[in-house]
């Protein structure tokens, strides 16, 4: 059974930081690009960041570039999203997912598989 568990969310003041983790079990995802997405109430799920299988290439949405950093530890089957200088508009539930097929745009949620339950991030002003 494949399972993705996101953790590390919480309530933080604007300007603060959070470190999100994504732990995978049931399957090794070290061969796949991993993405982070977020979804606010009433909005579509949007791309946040992605990291290729080796960690050598990373990709960010313009809205988080320079503030968020994605990394991975293939030995532990985990992916981390470090979020600095948080803003109220970053408030959302955050999800990680693997892009197993290797096709489709990495910024599109439909290109990814095995979504977890997400972790809530709330940034107060």
Offer a quick outline of the entry:
The protein is mainly β. The chain has no helices and ten strands. The chain has a six-stranded mixed sheet with strand order 2-10-9-4-5-6, with no helix packed on it. The chain has a four-stranded antiparallel sheet with strand order 1-3-8-7, with no helix packed on it.
Mind sketching the topology for me?
Blueprint: E1 3-7, E2 10-13, E3 18-25, E4 33-39, E5 46-51, E6 58-60, E7 68-73, E8 78-83, E9 92-99, E10 119-124
Parallel strand pairs: 2-10
Antiparallel strand pairs: 1-3, 3-8, 4-5, 4-9, 5-6, 7-8, 9-10
Molecular structure report:
The protein is an all-beta fold and 125 residues long. The chain has no helices and 10 strands. It has strands spanning 3-7, 10-13, 18-25, 33-39, 46-51, 58-60, 68-73, 78-83, 92-99, 119-124. A 6-stranded mixed beta sheet has the order 2-10-9-4-5-6, with no helix packed on it. It has a 4-stranded antiparallel beta sheet with strand order 1-3-8-7, with no helix packed on it. The protein is globular. It starts with a strand and ends with a strand. The model has no long low-confidence stretch (mean pLDDT 95).
